[in-house]
UniProtKB/TrEMBL annotation:
<feature type="compositionally biased region" description="Basic and acidic residues">
    <location>
        <begin position="276"/>
        <end position="285"/>
    </location>
</feature>
<dbReference type="InterPro" id="IPR002893">
    <property type="entry name" value="Znf_MYND"/>
</dbReference>
<feature type="compositionally biased region" description="Basic and acidic residues">
    <location>
        <begin position="335"/>
        <end position="365"/>
    </location>
</feature>
<feature type="region of interest" description="Disordered">
    <location>
        <begin position="424"/>
        <end position="476"/>
    </location>
</feature>
<feature type="region of interest" description="Disordered">
    <location>
        <begin position="262"/>
        <end position="285"/>
    </location>
</feature>
<keyword id="KW-0862">Zinc</keyword>
<keyword id="KW-0479">Metal-binding</keyword>
<dbReference type="GO" id="GO:0008270">
    <property type="term" value="F:zinc ion binding"/>
</dbReference>
<dbReference type="Pfam" id="PF01753">
    <property type="entry name" value="zf-MYND"/>
</dbReference>
<feature type="domain" description="MYND-type">
    <location>
        <begin position="301"/>
        <end position="354"/>
    </location>
</feature>
<keyword id="KW-0863">Zinc-finger</keyword>
<feature type="region of interest" description="Disordered">
    <location>
        <begin position="334"/>
        <end position="367"/>
    </location>
</feature>
<protein>
    <recommendedName>
        <fullName>MYND-type domain-containing protein</fullName>
    </recommendedName>
</protein>
<feature type="compositionally biased region" description="Low complexity">
    <location>
        <begin position="464"/>
        <end position="476"/>
    </location>
</feature>
């Protein structure tokens, strides 16, 4: 989870391969993409574990969902948004998420330090996915909910109309199109809730008091009424009272957005960003291809710190990159212990490194590469160099045979304790103490492999494959 939700650069080819893997010997990719509905619901559970305040839960949930959407295709993500909380089995989670979304908190902006427009975007996103559930769509407290929705709409309109003061970060470009969609959805939801009310009780009966999106929608409905029926197909004249709350999202995407050109705007951006991607298969986010990613996030040499588009990677852990073989040798000789044996392992594999074109885009952002563990204390993260030093001994001791076994469970308290030991016990500061690999091995003492897991030394495997799997299961 920590790796998926980290701010790592992801290329378009990576997302396409993840959703449509092509196995060896197959000419066509498998047709089934990833179903993200379970991830969206699991994000709500995780948000509940991380925070208690309702505004914090919605914020964390939406941020996790946005991270998951990065790894999905457009059609599948849209379907997941409609089905994640729609079933009766998910009604309990749906009610809790909806209540958190419509509960306003005066301190929500101060406690998050984010742009209020993003706060409103996340709240409406939660309201939209929960409105797919029949239990929410048939709530009796409509007047109370309508009051909250109006307050959000007013505050959102004020923030959009206000000139940025620099107090909060600007809205990301990727979120601007989502903001247009969410504001239209919120306005449509308010109009639908107001429709059964008498004109005298409707606060927004005066058109001058309506927000921009609401005025646009009213103009669209008026245009629909005057639209002449042409051709063989009969033109349906829609009214607000004809709409169902559960179908507002589908109606917005199928009827309203095409007339405003917002769907074409997103499609054109996708085509421009994706180039020669497969027709009809668009990523949910506007992602760059691998070549653009390499230029935007060049590899950083672990030895000299030089950034380069082309780099060689350590074939043992696959985490460290070098600008040249000289830097690779110099960095390896810095390590304490059996450097010669490790270099021999690389020689036996016959792999001194690989060009970056044949690797996934694993560019590190500035400031991530730390030459010493002390550097990590100020930046708040574990440096790649030190991570390299921690993980290579693990591979040598074949600890991955235990971790990657289907019969082994790594509970969270044990995982945190061992990882913290590995970080604190550095060779420079704790001479004579056990190294990180020994700490982890000690933590796994007593754990035995089952019949379906290969025993120590029973099989020969590429050290790089084990490290890559370990990297995906470890959040250091």
């Amino acid at each position: 989870m920590d790796l998926l939700t980290g701010l790592y650069p992801v290329s378009r080819e990576t997302v396409e391969a993840l959703n449509y893997p092509q196995l060896a010997g197959e000419e066509e990719r498998s047709k089934g993409a990833i179903d993200f509905s379970r991830f969206f619901r699991a994000a709500f559970w995780l948000a509940g574990q991380r925070c208690r305040a309702c505004s914090d839960k919605v914020m964390v949930w939406a941020q996790l969902v946005c991270c998951f959407e990065t790894y999905g295709m457009s059609a599948e993500v849209m379907q997941a948004q409609r089905s994640a909380f729609a079933s009766s089995e998910a009604s309990t989670d749906t009610v809790h998420l909806y209540r958190d979304a419509i509960t306003l908190c005066n301190c929500m902006v101060d406690c998050h330090g984010v742009n209020p427009r993003m706060e409103y975007l996340y709240r409406v996103k939660a309201i939209e996915v929960t409105m797919q559930n029949r239990k929410i769509a048939r709530r009796k407290e409509r007047m109370k909910d309508l009051k909250v929705l109006r307050e959000i709409d007013e505050a959102w309109q004020t923030e959009v109309s206000t000139i940025p003061s620099g107090e909060f970060p600007e809205v990301p470009e990727e979120a601007l199109l989502s903001e247009k969609h969410s504001r239209l959805y919120l306005a449509l939801l308010i109009l639908c809730l107001e429709a059964p009310l008498a004109k005298s009780t409707s606060r927004f009966s005066d058109a001058s008091e309506k927000s921009g999106p609401m005025k646009v929608l009213l103009q669209w409905f008026a245009w629909q009424q005057k639209k002449p029926a042409g051709g063989k197909e009969k033109s349906t004249r829609w009214t607000v009272s004809d709409l169902s709350l559960q179908n507002l999202t589908a109606f917005l995407h199928e009827k309203i957005l095409p007339d405003f050109g917002l769907d074409k705007e997103r499609e054109s951006q996708n085509e421009e960003a994706e180039g020669e991607g497969e027709k009809g298969k668009k990523t949910s986010r506007l992602l760059k291809d691998s070549k653009e990613m390499r230029f935007q996030y060049p590899y950083t040499c672990a030895q000299c710190g030089k950034k380069s588009v082309k780099a060689k990677h350590c074939r043992v852990c696959l985490l460290i990159s070098y600008c040249s073989k000289e830097c690779q040798r110099a960095h390896w000789t810095k390590k304490s212990g059996d450097e010669g044996e490790r270099e021999g392992e690389g020689d036996r594999e016959g792999k001194e490194g690989c060009e970056s074109e044949n690797c996934d885009s694993r560019g590190e952002s500035e400031g991530v590469v730390c030459s010493k563990p002390e550097d990590c204390e100020s930046t708040g993260h574990v440096g790649w160099c030190y991570t390299h030093r921690v993980r290579c001994p693990l591979l040598k001791k074949r600890v991955t045979d235990v971790i990657l076994s289907d019969n082994f469970t790594f509970d969270a308290p044990m995982r945190r304790k061992i990882i913290q030991q590995s970080i604190e016990e550095t060779p420079e500061e704790n001479e004579g103490h056990s190294d990180p690999a020994a700490s982890l091995a000690a933590g796994l003492e007593g754990v035995t492999l089952q019949d379906n897991a290969a025993p120590d030394g029973a099989r020969e495997e590429d050290p790089g494959s084990g490290s890559a799997a370990l990297a995906s299961s470890d959040s250091v």
